[in-house]
Amino acid sequence: MLVRDYMTRHPLMAEPTMSVVKAQHFMAENAIRHLPVVGDGKRLLGLVTRQSLLVDPHRLASLDMWEIARLLSDLTLGDVMIKAKDVITVSADATLEEASRIMVENKIGGLPVLEETIVTGILTETDLLAQLVNLLGGSAKGVRVTIRMPDRIGEFAKVTGALAAKGWGIYASGGVPAPKEPGYWDMVVKVRHVDQDDLVSVLGAIPDQRIVDAREM
Question: What pTM value is reported for the model?
């Protein structure tokens, strides 16, 4: 799963001469929170977020209402944008895991995707959440079971073997280290066209594993 396959291609962009007021309306109308600022040939010059459009109140403290209005009307994206050298970006060939790690470590909600210095797309936390839904089969009806298993070789094979013996297949799956229980993993499997009680009975009989949650969704 590479960034190039899940990013938003041809994202909305703006020039540095766009006024801050116009950019606020533009972002609100298009329901976006990240706006790449570009020059000739879509070369990245900076990035604007909703937060970067907020004017520091200290700049306004000594001004009267007319001066504030004039200041706000004169501000452009070039004045408030995060400069290109400080913008955190990602390559289209990066994996979704790499992009997610970058966003988590830097506490940001979006990454411009660059080919050299040219903006080719943008990847946001919304894009990643949409793929998480797909990864765990959230778009299809079925029975979702979370199984806690020891972190050792062969445990997931027990699950696939038990399902295969009944002629059932896994529609989607994913796993993470069990919270507050070192040495264990929580594995989520989603199985379609099966009765929940039957599935729980089969998976609940696997040695050294236990069912944490089961539900139809």
Answer: 0.77
